Amino acid sequence: MNSLFETGGAGPVATTHDWLTPPELLAALGAFDLDPCASQFQPWKTAKTQLTIADDGLAREWAGRVWCNPPYGDKAAEWLARCGAHGNAIALIFARTETAAFQAHVFGAATALLFIRGRLRFRLPGGGHATANAGAPSVLVAYGTENAECLARCGIEGALVWLKK
Hints:
The protein is an alpha/beta fold. The chain contains 5 helices and 7 strands. The strands form 2 sheets. It has a 5-stranded mixed sheet. A two-stranded parallel sheet has the order 1-2. The longest helix has 11 residues, at 76-86.
């Protein structure tokens, strides 16, 4: 695995968990009501309401259609569990299907998956491009039928897998 993406080349510890979703990916998915884990340095809107780390979006009430690009790391499972409990969300995570979090909160709760073709190139706080690709494949996880149907028609290249219909 290419860990330079997550660590910035600084060894085994992540230098940031602030990887911004490319705006063209968001545009393909339509409007969201809430992003509970938006960057504090977000140069484009990800949702009508954006909560940052200062707002503790995990502890707040969620309403409407949720966009979730959670901090990658040991807390991702909590965000995925919350997406599943909410039932109306799309999450962007690494396609690490062997992990306990993926088994429990994706395979165990999601409606559909879109395995994105190739590797994403996230944006950095402020909007600049990351110097390297994501270092691992990414997947969009749909919770709820409407979000699954969105993945089916969004035009993002990849492989769609329905888990529930």
